[in-house]
Amino acid sequence: MLVRTVGLAVALALALxxxxxxxxxxxxxAEPKAAAAPKLEKAPKAAKTPKAAKTKPAAxxxxxxxxxxxxxxxxxxxxxxxxxxxxxxALGTSGAGNAAEPLAELLAAxxxxxxxxxxxxxxxxxxxxxxxxxxxxxxxLDLYTGHRAPELRQxxxxxxxxxxxxxxxxxxxxxxxxxxxxxxxxxxxxxxxxRETTARxxxxxxxxxxxxxxxxxxxxxxxxxxxxxxxxLAGSVDEGVLATTLGEYAQRGDVPDRLRVDVVRxxxxxxxxxxxxxxxxxxxxxxxxxxxxxxxxxxxxxxTREGAR
Length: 309
Description:
Elements: H1 2-24, H2 66-77, H3 81-94, H4 100-109, H5 113-128, H6 137-144, H7 150-160, H8 168-174, H9 181-193, H10 200-208, H11 215-221, H12 227-231, H13 239-250, H14 257-270, H15 273-285, H16 293-307
Helix pairs in contact: 2-3, 3-5, 4-5, 4-6, 5-7, 6-7, 7-9, 9-11, 10-11, 11-13, 13-14, 13-15, 14-15, 14-16, 15-16
């Protein structure tokens, strides 16, 4: 009996031990599977920040550093003529708004011809780039348009014409009556560049006198109704003046082609070398693929002239 009891106790203990082990140590089958690691999405690339556009400062907004400006001013007013001319050229090509100040100062104080010419040319360069902003520039240049030396008057006119100020127009118109052809031509070109329509009557009056200095400016400013008046001068005015005026007028892009046909026929009727040159230059100015009637007519007339020789 005792043995049986002991045996049952041992069996029960073994069974409980096995049960407890099973409860505390789950089998591999019962072990939950580890969740698969989620795939990490790549973070979107940050948008590239656009580079700031590099913009050049507008003409007249650039400025020379004070030390550089002072150095050029010292050379401009110094005793060395070559250094002064070089300084004027450097100021003119700088495109800086404050570069005109020392140039205007030199002209106001008076300068030898070489320095004055270089200074006027420098102001013209600044003006051509839109950087002629010195308040004194107008007064000084206006004064120099009446200088006794034609070369200085001509240079002053070129510089003055670049100033975008209506005050310059009366001076330019007055200089169409200058005694020097170069000065008249400079004034006419400045007026034409400004599209100054008030210059037409004076330019036409110069053409009637056979003044070549007015030919290109009038060609740039003439209206269609002026062309018959110009053509009527044939035989009474130098042929070269008329041929240049009509030939350059025909090359303008805003001229109706039917009027160009009339112009080339007028040129052909002149018969001289200047008219032939004008016809050749007109044909050359037309793009090769452009088969406009006036080009064909000019070529036909030119061929006829060549064949008649």
